[in-house]
Amino acid sequence: MTISALTTLEEITDDYEVILVNDRSEDKRIRKILDKIEQTFNKVRVIHHEEKSGEK
């Protein structure tokens, strides 16, 4: 879903920035996946929280 949305954005505009936040997911694959997306799409920024900042 994220890749599809980013691809669509690239097709319709160049005036955007997407920020993806990893709120310390328990799934260890998420960091690698988000980093790969950031490397592939130059208008994507990724923030990795070291501590969970959402619901407690």
Helix content: 40-55%
Structural class: alpha+beta
Beta strands, count: 2
- The value of Rg in angstroms is 12 Å
Strand order of the largest sheet: 1-2
The rounded distance between the terminal residues' Cα atoms is 27 Å
> Which spans of ≥5 residues are poorly predicted at pLDDT below 50?
none
List key phrases describing it:
2 helices; alpha+beta; elongated; 18% strand; 2 strands; two-stranded parallel ribbon; 56 residues; 41% helix
Q: Could you explain the architecture of this structure?
A:
A two-stranded parallel ribbon has the order 1-2. The chain is built from two helices and two strands; from the N terminus they run αβαβ. It has 56 residues and is of the alpha+beta class.
Quick synopsis:
The chain has 2 helices and 2 strands, in the order H-E-H-E. The mean pLDDT is 91.
Topology (SSEs and partners):
Layout (H helix, E strand, L loop, with lengths): L1 H11 L5 E5 L6 H12 L3 E5 L8
Parallel strand pairs: 1-2
